[in-house]
């Protein structure tokens, strides 16, 4: 048997020497490499921290400027300064009403009442809006004739009058202005819806003889025909008021209707006039 001799690789000892030399160099310079790497890391951290602090400073400055601007804007508005809270309340009082075709006087005034609730919404220290919902009585009275006769023995007084009583649900929308803290004036529209009503006729005869008076009275009442009445009533109100305390106040108002009552008659001689005087209580 013939044995072949394996030839040795001439490159292997050379490569081993190179790797050994490289390992020796890395081992001798590892501390320098590690130190250089740590230095770069520290520099990178410092750069990141600087940018982070700069960004936070810019953000804080922007927010502070925005807040200051908003504060100045709010303070600059006179409508938002010293605004009182929204308050609810109730009110009630007496009415004195007549029709536009009548002359204002004692013999034409139909007495009634109003009652309901309201909410007062301030928009500034001096101005507020007050919507209301009221049960509201309107109408008129008319003295058809009044006579007196005296024959020397007996005195006779005769009076015949008619009354119209009309019940509405009214929704006034008043704008109030306060020149001083407790006193205000108001104006605004009033929208009303007719519910029902009555026509009443009354007569009285008073006879006096020898100092003795005998009175005879009679009356008749009938419902108003709703088909003849304009259901919706629109008017303009003007009034004033005074706050007796922070909760209790007094109010006076005049309302002039602009729509006709009876559908068959002209509006100029056929609408409501009403005076109101009442008390209100704010919660």
UniProtKB/TrEMBL annotation:
Gene3D superfamilies given in the database record: 2.40.160.20
InterPro entries: Beta-barrel_OMP_2, OMP/PagP_B-barrel
Ranges of residues in domain Outer membrane protein beta-barrel: 65-262
Keywords: Plasmid
Keyword Coiled coil in record: no
Superkingdom field: Bacteria
Repeat in keyword set: no
Name of the featured protein: PorT family protein
Organism encoding this protein: Chryseobacterium panacisoli
């Amino acid at each position: 048997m013939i044995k072949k001799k394996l030839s040795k690789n001439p490159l292997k000892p050379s490569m081993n020497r190179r790797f050994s030399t490289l390992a020796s160099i890395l081992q001798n310079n590892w501390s320098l490499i590690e130190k250089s790497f740590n230095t770069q890391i520290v520099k990178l951290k410092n750069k990141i921290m600087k940018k982070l602090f700069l960004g936070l400073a810019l953000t804080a400055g922007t927010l502070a400027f925005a807040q200051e601007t908003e504060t100045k804007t709010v303070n600059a508005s006179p409508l938002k300064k010293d605004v009182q809270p929204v308050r609810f309340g109730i009110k009630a009082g007496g009415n004195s009403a007549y029709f536009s075709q009548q002359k204002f006087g004692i013999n034409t005034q139909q007495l009634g009442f109003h009652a309901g609730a309201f909410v007062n919404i301030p928009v500034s220290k001096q101005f507020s809006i007050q919507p209301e919902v009221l049960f509201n009585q309107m109408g008129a009275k008319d003295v058809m004739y009044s006579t007196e006769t005296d024959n020397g023995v007996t005195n006779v007084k005769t009076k015949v009058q008619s009354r119209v009583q009309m019940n509405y649900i009214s929704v006034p929308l008043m704008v109030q202005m306060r020149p001083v803290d407790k006193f205000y004036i108001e104006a605004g529209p009033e929208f009303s819806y007719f519910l029902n009503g009555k026509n009443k006729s009354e007569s009285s005869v008073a006879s006096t003889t020898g100092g003795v008076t005998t009175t005879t009275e009679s009356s008749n009442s009938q419902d108003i025909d709703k088909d003849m009445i304009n259901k919706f009533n629109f008017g303009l109100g003007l009034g004033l008021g005074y706050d007796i305390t922070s909760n209790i106040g007094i109010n006076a108002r005049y309302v002039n209707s602009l729509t006709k009552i009876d559908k068959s008659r002209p509006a100029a001689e056929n609408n409501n006039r009403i005076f109101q005087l009442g008390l209100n209580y704010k919660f």
